Amino acid sequence: MNKTGFIFDLDGVIVDTAKYHYLAWKNLADELGIEFTIEDNENFKGVSRRRCLEILLEMGGISVSKEQFEAWLVEKNEDYLQYILKMDENEILPDVKRILNYLKEQKIPMALGSASKNAIPILEKVSLLRYFDAIVDGNSVTKAKPDPEVFLIAAAKLGVDPLGCVVFEDAVAGIEAANSAKMLSIGIGDSEVLSESKFSFEDFTKIDIDFLNRLVLSLQERNNKG
Ligand code: B16
Ligand code: MG
């Protein structure tokens, strides 16, 4: 069994696809006559597509048939995919590649743990798929974050004890999921919002190699103690 593993969320950690999710939800909301702002979109971060649509319809006080619900899910996703098609390496968030390259050099296993069902095409578009030893996405889980399932499957796929795993997350639900998986959570974004994380950084430019090395050592100790 490997001693340590790193798990990355996708949207908001590796790439900023939240802006594309926003545009696609906004298009649907406009069509349905629901007011939907960038602030409303904050509540959609880390939340499954299905749950997002439920929230949107609750906001508009709209109840629909199962068929209509499914059709709007498809419509939103098709719209979203139009934005994704145009993505390239320039959309990788600052210094993400520096951290991925360092961990790769150290031969530390890495996994993706995302709620998105579009995770693989996005990683392909930004040429990062090859970095990951395991991908766990919205297609492989039955329970959404804050349930720890996504990260526990990722740890199992990496062959790392959850106690030896680090999770980078930008969403409150994701931090909660990592904490309940007994993993070391690192918030990426606003430290006040992500106050439940063990550590937090505004972005990856603020993470230095010394910090990562200390982290790996402390995880190994944590793991040894069980
Ligand atoms: P999709 P993450 C999440 O990804 C997004 O933060 C969230 O806004 C989105 O609704 C969800 O994926 C589902 O995405 O519609 O592509 O399946 O942050 O867990 O990587
Ligand atoms: Mg996210």
List keywords for this structure.
binds 1,6-di-O-phosphono-beta-D-glucopyranose, 226 residues, 2 domains, six-stranded parallel sheet, Rossmann fold, DNA polymerase, domain 1
Polypeptide structure, described:
With 226 residues, this protein is α/β, with parallel strands linked by helices. The protein folds into 2 domains: 5-15 and 89-225, Rossmann fold (3-Layer(aba) Sandwich), CATH 3.40.50.1000; 18-84, DNA polymerase, domain 1 (Orthogonal Bundle). Helices cover 46% and strands 11% of the residues. The chain has 9 helices and 6 strands; from the N terminus they run E-H-H-H-H-H-E-H-E-H-E-H-E-E-H. The chain has a 6-stranded parallel β-sheet, sandwiched between helices. Strand 2 (110-113), helix 6 (119-125) and strand 3 form a beta-alpha-beta unit. Helix 1 packs across helix 4 (66-84). It is globular, with a radius of gyration of 18 Å. 38% of the residues are buried. The structure holds 1,6-di-O-phosphono-beta-D-glucopyranose (B16) and magnesium ion. Magnesium ion binds at residues 9, 11-13, 45-46, 170-171, 174.
